[in-house]
Structure formats: C-alpha cells, structure tokens
Amino acid sequence: MNAKKQTRPSTAGLFGAVEMPALAAVPVALVALAAAGVRATAGLTLMVCALAVVLVLASFESSRPALRQLMPTAVLAALAAAGRVLFAPLPDVKPVSAIAIVAGAALGRRSGFVVGALAALLSNFFFGQGPWTPWQMYAWGLVGYVGGILAERGALDRRWVLYGWGLASGLVYGLILNGYHVLGYVQPLTWQAALAACAASLPLDVTHGVATTGFLAAIWEGWGRAIRRVVEKYDL
Amino acid sequence: MASARPTPFDACHAAVPATLLAGTALLSMLSVQPVYVALSLAGALTFSLVARGGRATLRGLRWQLPLLALVCLANPFFSASGSTLLLKVGPRSVYAESLAYGATMGALMVAVALWLEGAAAVLTQDRLLALSPRRARSLPLVASMASQLLPQMLSRARTMRATASACTAAGARLGLRDELVRTSTMLLAWSLEDSVERADSMRARGWESGRPRTCYRPERVRGCDAAALAGIVALLALCAWCTWETCSGWRFYPRMSDLGPWWRYLPWAVLAALPATLSLASSRDGGGGPRGRA
Hints:
The complex is a heterodimer of chains A (236) and B (294).
Chain A: H1 2-35, H2 41-62, H3 67-86, H4 96-107, H5 109-127, H6 133-152, H7 159-185, H8 191-234
Chain B: H1 15-30, H2 34-52, H3 54-78, E1 85-89, E2 92-95, H4 96-122, H5 125-130, H6 138-166, H7 176-204, H8 223-248, H9 266-284
Antiparallel strand pairs in B: 1-2
C-alpha cells in the first residue's frame, strides 16, 4: 500500500516531465516527416499527435486532482463545447480558445489542456468526428496549456499579454490545422504550396484570433469574478 | 448500463468493436494507396448505412462529399506534379497523378470520418468509458460529466435567454454583446455551484474514500470475446503486412505504379467488410440484444 502511494508522485513527475517534449514533438514530427517525403505522413503524424494528447491527459490523471477541483474543469469543458455549438453559424468565431485560456489561468495548465481537448472532442459529436479531431484536441489543448503557463508566471495580469496570446492563439490553431492538412495531404510539397495554403487561410485565422481576443475581453472580468465567488463560497 | 435501443455489437464486449473499428481506421490512415482507400471507403459507407441508417449517412455525406472534392482539387492547385497532363487552367497545369493523389487523400479523410461516425453509433458513451483503465478515475469522470452537462447547458442557455427576453420588468434590453456576457456568466456561475454540490454529494456516496466503491463491471471479457479479439488482431496484422508490401512499392509520381497482385487486397477487403457484416448478422439475430451483464 505504502509502496503504491510512493509510486504516485514519481509517476506524476514522470508524466509531468514528458508533457512539454510530447507537445513539442508534434510539430517536429510533422515537419520532419513531410520534409523526408514520407507518404503516410498524415497517418504517422496523427499517431504522434494522438500520443501527445494521451500523454498530457495521463499527466492530468496522474496528478490526482480532488473531486471538487475536477468539477470546474468539466463545467468549463462543457461550456466551451456548448459555445462552439452556439456560435456555429459564425465561421471562425468560437469561444473555445478563450475559455481554454481562462481555464488554464484559473485551474492550471493541465486543466487548460483538458478543457480545450475535451471541448474539441465533445463538440465534434455535433459537427462530425474525423481525422481532424485529435488535431483540434491538440491545438485547443495547447492554447489552454500555454494560457496556464503564462498565468503561472503572472504574465496574464498584463492585459497586452492576455490579448496578445488571444490573438496569437487563433494563428497557432490555424497553423496547426493547416500544417496537418498541407504537410499530410498535399504531395509533392513545395514551399510555395505551403505558403499559398497559409496565405489562403490567414483571414480566417486572424478572424479566429480577433474573436478570441474579443471573447477574452468580454468574459475575463465577469467569469473571473464568478469563479472567485464560487471559490470563496465553497472554500475550494 | 444498457442502451435503450439495441445497437450492433451489443452482444460482445466493447473491446471487440473498439479494436476492430480503431484498427481499421488507423490502418486506413496509413494505407495511402487508391485501392486500399477505395475499399476502406466502401466498407465505411456500408457500415455507416447499417449502423446509422440511410438518412443519417446521407446527411453526413452532404458535407463529406464537398470535403472530398475540396481535398481532391486542392492538391493539383497547390502542387502541380505528374506526367499525364489533363488540362491547363491559366498558368497552372493539372496532372492526372496529382488529381489522383488528391482524390485518394480526400476519400481517405471521408472514409476515416465515416468509420468514426459508425463507431460513435455502435459504441455508446457508457461502453467507451467502461473501457478506460480501472486506475483512471479523474479523466473518465470529467469526460462523462462534461458530455452530460453539454446538452443541459444548451437547454439552460435557451431558457435564460427566453426568460430574459420575456421579462419586461428587467429594464432596457441589453445589446447583443452584453446579453451574451450576462447569459454566459450566469450559466457559468449556475453550473459551477451545481458542480460543487454534485461533488459533495458524490463524496458522501464514497468517492475519494481511498477504497474501491464497487467491483461491479458492466461488461466482462468472456471466452468468445477473447477469441474474437485474437481473430481481429490477427486479421489486422495480416492487413498491415499486405499494406506494407503494396504501399512500399507504390508511387503516385511521376507515373502511378502497377497495383500489384490482387491477393494482397483480399485481407483488407475482408477487414473493411467485417463491421457491416457483423452488424447485419447481429441485427438478424434480433438486434444483438444486450450481452449478459456480469
């Protein structure tokens, strides 16, 4: 029993140590496989992406959060998914990134990742699952994870950093989703083709980033107050 | 918990359809070759028709077919390469090989989407969560809570907006932005308070006590499930070998290679047809019926 208890911190530490390398391995694998001209890049990078998502989720699991801490994560994930469904008529205007950043800031980076990843998974039950689901889970999870890291360092107290990451998150999300499609599904790949694809999607990614910044500006204060009130009321 | 409506594969452990469908989808993603992709698409389409019904499949195809066309046309547009010139659009040449690659990747994307949609119809959320390791406690709980909260939140958001718009005593109407912020903040506070109370209620029923609450498992692996799993894994391994042999010699550019011996496609055809065949067989046995829950 004691031995079991002693293994938990080491397991959590192990998973915690591989989180960032796992997240960084995805773009590295994507570029490396595409540069090597591997035809099954789409499938292989999907496996790397899915593995990275599983590792970060396993890290969240091994951190053994208390039941009362788990519930806000579930609520924010459901809210993010509901927000994506409610804003479906407006292309690229989605509150998912903003809610993932709020979750990362309020509950920690792992919770930020879980909120972003689960929001993508759950909302795709409405929009359709596909090979893009793990990539969306990774991209929105990453947005929440980085939001959590920035909050841990106190950077999100400065509004320009908060809005800057909100704007950049749209571009990062677009880069990951475009990268997966262009590097995995277009062959033979040239720099011109990759740049043309990025340029074609730039207006949509900028819209996503601006919308995320707008959502952050709208909810950061109000939601922060609501979360703080619940934290104080229930002594979380 | 057994689902109210019988679904295919109800008669076997969830690990059997999960392994079959996940393995087929994964192998499809790794088999970038026109014949394999066509077989996968045909199998996925048939399985979707059987598992989800014609109407749901057609509703999905309304966005999947344009997606296929988009991916198909994007490749020659972004990357003009090949040896068989089909036409010239302005300064851009469209080659048959480039178009074939795009069509293959588009069909692959749609096939995987159809496999996953079919899997979602067959593997209910309860059955999927039951597959999670017993030591995993937090993530299955968060996933299951969030999926149950999602429809509740959509319904609560509609209720709150309807109430606010019907209440003439609440003062002047808010602008769209303020209305959205108010609705979402109320929704958040409402759901957070609910969730904390739910957590306390769960703790009162034994969660976080440090001891297993129950040894009950809704599904247990029986001998026939183990045999089915072994058969599926063997078939997947055979398909992986055949796919590797074929795909390693296959080239799209500059000219598409020969398709290779026909027998290398046989295991893959069996694998692609297996989910629909098993679903049809189970529906002929009276919908499969929920398996004997242990």
